[in-house]
Amino acid sequence: MKTRYSLLFLAFSVSLVFYLGSCSGKKQQQSTEKERLPYALVIHGGAGTIKPKNMDAETKAQYEKALNEALDIGENILKNGGTALDAVENVIVYLENSPLFNAGKGAVFTYEGHNELDASIMDGKTHKAGAVGGVTIVKNPIRAARAVMEKSPHVLLTCAGANRFAIEQGLDTVSPEYFYTESRWEALQRRLEKEKKKEPVGAREEPDAHKFGTVGCVALDKQGNLAAGTSTGGLTAKRWNRIGDSPIIGAGTYADNATCAVSCTGHGEYFIREAVAHDMSARMAYLGESVQEAGEHIINEKLKAIGGAGGLIAIDQYGQIAMPFNTSGMYRGYVTPDERKVGIFK
Amino acid sequence: MKTRYSLLFLAFSVSLVFYLGSCSGKKQQQSTEKERLPYALVIHGGAGTIKPKNMDAETKAQYEKALNEALDIGENILKNGGTALDAVENVIVYLENSPLFNAGKGAVFTYEGHNELDASIMDGKTHKAGAVGGVTIVKNPIRAARAVMEKSPHVLLTCAGANRFAIEQGLDTVSPEYFYTESRWEALQRRLEKEKKKEPVGAREEPDAHKFGTVGCVALDKQGNLAAGTSTGGLTAKRWNRIGDSPIIGAGTYADNATCAVSCTGHGEYFIREAVAHDMSARMAYLGESVQEAGEHIINEKLKAIGGAGGLIAIDQYGQIAMPFNTSGMYRGYVTPDERKVGIFK
Q1: Active site residue A214
Q2: What ipTM was reported for this prediction?
Q3: Which of A1, A104, A151, B109 has the lowest tally of Cβ within 10 angstroms?
């Protein structure tokens, strides 16, 4: 009789361990096993059709140099105890000022031949956020996004109003011609030619590095706070003051200290429809997924299945990072106290 | 020996049932117990400080009549086999045309004394979505949102570009003066007076029915498809082409046949920062919560804790509905083949 009860007890115990392990074990395991890095920072410069055969050694070296310089700026801030928000903002300012990327100087042209810039930033500690859509004279849209977060009661300002707000805040403004770059102008001409020949206006866009050069940055600082930011010129030949996912909190950008900070790049319409940045946070919070598992699922399963080209960068509260993309390349890099890497191709 | 094995088997079986029941039982239980209603539709006309003592019988009757007429329009479409999208669009057109609500005719005024309208719509079957932000001459912004979804490659168009798109699509346009209503103009003057006296520009807004009169509709049709839509004039005295949550997919509006259709109303900035509409869908998908549980948690716990005033309407694939709000009132109503109700106060 005694043996029987022992066996019963054993069976129940094994089952209980099995039950607890299956339902909530994943999260517990992570928090005890992982050590928190003092700081970490991840950047992207856009995902798209970026193949080794289409890129000469000099161009590759230029991109790698720019990515490394961006990491330097962020690392310097974080190493010295600066905030994740400051790191994200200043790294993105650097990327906006580089003509290599589709953000700030280097932004693509709209159908009508203008440059309309979008950016957003979010603080993982407070859930405060700011964004601008369609600004045309703001030198660094990410600074305008931060000013919206800190100096206005709103989250998203657009078009002429957002320009006006930036002027009132004393931010650097430029003449619209500042954003002209030859390569982006030519990209627009090629696109308009293509449209004239066959593609009907309004056709879904093909993935293309020149269209998807959004920049973004996510960071963890020494205080344990996360932040995320994204900045872009949008899609080449976009029309009707179109706004993509980059300035949309929950689509292109999200940050929550309890889960992760995320910045997306790709065909923005798909990222809006799937609320990609918030979905990263939700999968980690509700399913107990790691930042890598959530990123892999969303980019390489969910988005791939519906033809949504692009990628994202994400970082969790331990400094664990993910940089999944479903295109042939994504300009990217990360830095921690122990490691630094930049990459372009798959 | 045989008895021992039997007992062991029994113990494991009981434990297995316990395990399955705890981890995924909620969802299974729902799908077997619940019957799917042939159709159902829910509407809101905004949440805010709406108290019986501030509303005379005549005004109350006007609102109830309008809510019932909106339900008539939706029910008629759904009963005759029309789509959830058509029901949502046409119900919102009716609410936009009524001066009682802060959407279309009846929209609040911006700081500069203009009317800038936002709207969005989403199809739960395809995840396709369309939205406009800051249109000024489009009689029915919800029709423009649907045109963006169906006739453009984009999801969100804004400001002058969105106006132009609506004209190109042949939608009804009006002179900006069409949107003038005396009560909204007076609300702006009161607000500006208040600001002059004490409140600094940029102070967080207080909940107020005149500020939060957004309209929305969610529906389940006979084909089992869900759709959601939202339309608004935004916040009284909003500035700098501010856009709130209403045209943001994932914030003010979301629809997914697998989970729910949602339309939000309230202090939009909070709804953007918490990605409320997508969070409804995520909690149902990942935590197995019912539409009521998810709505209750988000509105009366999460948002309440951070001072985010407002409410939402939601419907799941079975026609189960939720209408939570954390303000003193929300104009609302629902209709199913068996039941119809409209309400204003708590």
Answers
A1: yes
A2: 0.89
A3: A1
